[in-house]
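If you are new to this repository, start here. Below is one unmodified record pulled from the training split, so you can see the exact layout before writing a loader.
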Amino acid sequence: MLAMTAFGRQAMGQATPPATRQPSLQVQAPPAPSAPLTRQNLPLENPSLLFDFKDSDIKFSLTSLMNVLRDSRHEGWVLAAYPDPKTSRPLIGAGFGLDVPATEHLQRDPLNPHPFIEPSTAQLWQAAGLDSARLQSILDQFDRDLTAWKKKKFRRKIRIHALSPQLTEADATKLLRISAIQATYNARAYCRMFDQLTASQQMALSQLVFQMGVNLEEFTQFLSALNDTSTYREAAQLASDVQPEAEHWKTVQTTLVQSQWARRYSTRAIAVIAMFDPTYDNDLRAAERKVQVTLHPRVAHHRKRAHLTSVRAVSGRHLGK
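And here is the target side for that same chain:
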């Protein structure tokens, strides 16, 4: 499956500074203990230990999230390095960044004690159990290909399946898994009430974190609405009235519908935004239709009235036209 959606990516799950890629990046060893991301300093045999992840930490299936991300309507799936459309930096698999530095991502919400973790590519690569020398080889080949082909030819080669695989399905899946785990881990840092979300809502937020990375911090209205727990308190006081909670999630959805992200990635946005609807699991198609109508309202096309046409025709004849 081609990752054509990846060529429309605005951001990826790992934090990627908007800078031009420098050729022949040398893979660095894991950082010294004084580095800000101390959890990644230890050699790991089990990738999930990077984030203390357990399947029971989330209500949805991690495998289901991975399957969605691999879909061409979301991240796509390419087993060779290809350039990000905006930065030209190398991606692989389901948009895994190949030259991402470790980033300090401060938790600025005093009511959320859960930290963010933004590892480097080398740290995630190590956590997935892959060989560092292989990463450097892929980066070196990418530099040569980008110089020779430019982004336009890269896109064409993806469309016609002309890129030689640089990872096996199994290894690319390992990278996707550890990236998905990172997304779910950081989703909890974005949302105070993460454990109270439905399975679909947790998965939707994790998808946003996977695509946006640290850029999700810029969605201030969305995060403010998401963490506004006043509607939950109102719902608790009016146990028989579910309207406050419904209004809360409608507000959350509206902040995303009004974003540039939703307009630019409308197909993906409809699927993700619909998942925040608390009734999503009852009728996902209906939830998606509600978002689609809001994002793309129908334009009324008024047909010319017959009598107006007749009047014009009569007037034309009267004027000798």
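Two things worth knowing about this chain: The CA atoms of residues 35 and 243 lie 47 Å apart. The radius of gyration is 24 Å.
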